[in-house]
Amino acid sequence: MDLLRSLPIGLYLDQPITRLHQLDARVKFIWLMAFLAAPLLANPWWRLALVGLLMFLTLLAPIPPRVWRQQMGWLIFLAIIVFLITAITPDGLGVSIQPRLPDEGLNLPPASDYQYVLWDRGRLFVTRRSLELAVRISTLIFTLIYSTNLFLLTTAPEEITEGLENLMSPLRRFNVPVTEISLTLTLSLRFIPLVLEEVQNLARAVRTRAIDWQKLGIKRSLNVWLTVVEKLLDNLLLRAEQIAIAMEVRGFTSPNQHQVRWHELKLRWADFIALFLLIPFWAARLVWGGL
């Protein structure tokens, strides 16, 4: 499964068991919602602090370097590219700066050292607004992707579905199919490795045939790839049908007839500490995060 090892994004890390693995799935989900909601309407300094906090949690867990280096590497590269592109693009204000000089003969000191344009190289220039937008967008991308990935990395699919079902249990009063939703989520998370496996097998099949793409031309090459995509869809539909048949054989006809406890939920002292830390987290957000 080379593709699974080279693309660990969103996959569960079963070994080693870190401190984040030991936390309850509901606690980690609440913290994930906090990381997703905290950047809203926050200033750039708070967004940078969230990025540093995520890196600190990764080192505190500790997540093995072979895992976080590969994931954080491409994500930091993406954030840097977005930062550079946003910083040098026009900020949208479209204000032409016209300095007002005093009358001749007057030698007045400058009012302040404030400069709206921070860096100017002809057509490429960075303003205060473009720099602020660059920080906001790049940190938002990093926070949203990495916090979600860190949650999936340290939480088994069964724990995620059991925790969500527990948190959504009050919705049963409004006839919301909570069990069906959690079961669908479990199957979707389990189906991701199957998709990667089918893509890897088809890629190996095409590579072992040593196809000369230059002799085929564009039209024939597209026909080959359309055939590969069609075969991929057929294999995935076959896998889905096999899973459905296996569930029917084992009695998965309705949630009322076949109840399955995915994971035993139990809050420990570390979970209560993690929940208590939400109080200073949001207090710091309100005091230093801005509106």
TrEMBL record:
Its main location: membrane. Pfam families: CbiQ. The keyword Transmembrane applies. It is found in: Membrane. InterPro entries: ABC/ECF_trnsptr_transmembrane. The chain crosses the membrane at residues 29-60, 72-90, 133-154, 269-288. CDD domains: EcfT. GO terms for cellular component: plasma membrane. It is a multi-pass membrane protein. Keywords: Membrane, Transmembrane, Transmembrane helix. This is CbiQ.
